Amino acid sequence: MNNVLRTCRGFVLFYNRQSIKSVQRGFHSTEPCLDKPPKVDVVSVDSFNNVKEKNKKTFLDMLKVYRMEKYRSGHVEFINKAIKHLDEFGVNEDLETYKKLIQVLPAGKFVPQNYIQSEFMHYPKHQQCIIDLLQKMEDNGVIPDWEVEDMLVKRFGPRGFPVRRYWRMMYWMPKFNNLSPWPIPKPAPNDPYELALLAIKRISSIDIESEVKVYKTKELEESIEDTWIVSGQSPDQKKIVANHPDNIPIYIEGGFRIWLRKQSIIYFILRTEPSPAIKNEEEEDEDDISNFRVPFFDKPIPKKSDKIAKKKTVHEQEDGTIIAVAATGTSSKNSLLSWIRFLEKDGNPRLTHIPILFTSKSPLGNVEPLSELDESKKEVEQSKQKVPIE
Questions:
Q1: Distance CA 228, CA 220 (A)
Q2: In this structure, is the dihedral angle defined by the CA atoms of residues 294, 296, 302 and 303, taken in order, positive or negative?
Q3: Percent of the chain with pLDDT over 70
Q4: What are phi and psi of 47, to 5 degrees?
Q5: Are 214 and 228 in contact (CB under 8 A)?
Q6: How many whole angstroms separate alpha carbon 12 and alpha carbon 18?
Q7: Is the dihedral of CA 44, 45, 50, 56 positive or negative?
């Protein structure tokens, strides 16, 4: 052929050996442009389920690997998936982890250019994703710092919805952080004994004279179990027991559940019936207008009564009088009986003459230790095996 095809700096020249016929602009590449292999992500949204050691180090390593990708995509899906696994990896109360999740979004890409874009939530999926992240922080009691604000402003501008959410959090969360009069360490202890001490101190704080004591059942000869008992009682409650008649029983009610952050403990109360109220015989009927008096011009009629009412203590409520409160290691009836024996020796000798009853008013049902439940199941299985099948 006389025509020759040559490529030079992006131009394709079609010429004849004698004369040039035409010149056309073209593009030359050694790699195929249409048949590109699919891009494989180093860290995908399903990688959180495939991790064996789930802790803070592995979680931050996964975020670091994802951020090192040159052409990464799916920021919103990745952050939403990571938020669901925060509790599983134990980083739901770590501020550094939340900062790393915010840094997954590139800075300067989602900033609105005018007020219309900012008010109409420019890039709504990305903004809602970070708002959910801030909500997760608030649910776990994590207070952000000023560095979080700088990260949000760089990504969504000073009028972005995540920045407004951050401002509301910084106004309210520091106010409520130390507002509780019963401070609890963060995180709360997992030991039931320490939780029982915190719970009984909180319940008994209604009376400043209340004493919280710890008893060991092994010190009692009549005890069957070996456990601890945390009891709370005040001098006023001991006086109520000393003046309690012998023919009126005292009830042990429980267990009731009290929450300390994300941990809970079961406690019991020693309660008696409320004392009868003294009625005033000369009490006026408010609906009687036969002797109507104007309070600004007429002198008030003094009320006369020969009866003297004793001032009630804070432990005497309308539904009953609380005598003591306690939490035990096993929450069983044997431990509660040991608790009564310790109260008899510790300033309540009249409990030996007063009938004490166990009630079934517990919202949790019958409270029994796991060892007793296992033994009862074994007995039932053995009885089934002994019964002949005809």
A1: 11
A2: positive
A3: 75
A4: -70, -20
A5: yes
A6: 18
A7: positive
